[in-house]
Amino acid sequence: MSKFKEGENCMYTEEEYDTRNRRRGSFPLRDFLLKLILIIIFVLLLVWLVPWPNNKSLTDRIFNANVQEMKNAALLYFTEERLPENVGDKKTITLQEMLDLHLLLPFTDKDGNSCDTQASYVTIEKLEEEFLLKVNLKCGDEEDYILVHVGCYAYCQSYICEKQEEEEETKPVQTPIFTSKPNPTPNPSNPSDTPCPTCPTCPPTPTNNPTPTPPPTNPPTDEPTPPPTTPPTDEPTPPPTDEPTPPPKTPPTTRPPTITYEYEYKKSVPAGCVTWGAWSNPIVYVDADNLTFGRWPKLEVEDLGSSYEVIGYRPVKVTVTSENLVQVGTYTETLCTEYTYVRVNNTTYAVTSGGWTDAGYYEGYSAPNDTVDTHYEFVRINWDVCGDTCTNHPYLVYKVYKRTLVQKAADNNDSVSRTCSATRTRTIPLYQIQTTVKTYNEKQYAYGNVKRYRYRECATYQEASTQYAWSTSQNDQSLLNQGYTLTGNKRVKSK
Fold first, then answer.
1. Which of 87, 123, 188, 221 has the largest CB neighbor count within 10 A?
2. Which is nearest to 455 in space by CA: 279, 222, 212?
3. In the predicted model, is pLDDT for residue 413 greater than 90?
């Protein structure tokens, strides 16, 4: 017997089959695999799109900062007497010259190598009305430059400065200013005891005054007797003996006085510092001090940043290689009595100046070499010139001595001149110019970043208080803008 009902189709579509399986609680494997593939694709796209961090931006910032330092040093160096005079003229200063003049500290590239001190330079060119400054820096395989327009502008703090972009002036916004002293709490029962405040007031609002009663305008009720139209036949009527009734007089109405009221305002003033004391001298600190910078009611602490400077000394050994006069022995020879003789590298000389004389000093990054008439004696290393780079390139200082020599004549008399008065047998020192290596124990500057801060204390501290003010207006915008509010009290304004 068939399990299908009559008229029912035994064939299912794929959609009908999935629907029937879901209804029965089955879990299709195909859906699971499809979702897993989509998740893997999403993760791969995310990894490909998210950029990995690099240090190029930091290197670029350091390089650009060094260029700005060269620009600032050049603005200080090119004073009036060092600027080109004619249009088109140029003057140049190299990075090495800046270092020699102590305008800058040495730059290094991303690998720690010193920047090229000869290929790095600053050039200033005279234009029609200003100057064009070119700053070029080369560190390793990286080289770039900037162009800056400079001149003697009105806003310059030094002789020349960088040209600034013109900005539109902003009109200042006028804000009403009102300062009042705290008024004592008024006594409503005795308004005359409250002092009159000095705050600005609005003009008083006029009061509707009653209209005075006008004088009577009605004429007398009795009309005068008309004159007779015909001449009287009888005797004239005698004049009346009573005086005429005067017109009624109404006294003027008295105008009541105008009463002006003042309204009380108040404002809460929080506690705070009114005036601050002087800043302290800069104080060195380290991160372990855990300082907190900012302003509080009675104290303010400010971070002054860090600077690269000398923090101490460290012992170093400096090795110097040079050519020096070295005595290797003596020999005996009959020579003139007028001269002192020396023999250097198998050549005999007569000393005609009397011996070694002081000839000043020699300074440089390389050691000088002795000659037959010049001798150098090491004095010290000038750490101020080369700073923390002196270990690799020491700046040497030598004392210089000189003498005048004349080579001995090649004749039988072994004399220097033909006027040799006498001869005698003498012991002559033998010298040779040899390469020597000397090591000097020195103390080198140790550099580091030094952090500093300063602080100041509150000189005048004001406790929280309430200030009062009076005004003839219940809508005084000047007081309202300053934070005052109406208290509901009022008083009659004193005259």
1. 123
2. 279
3. no
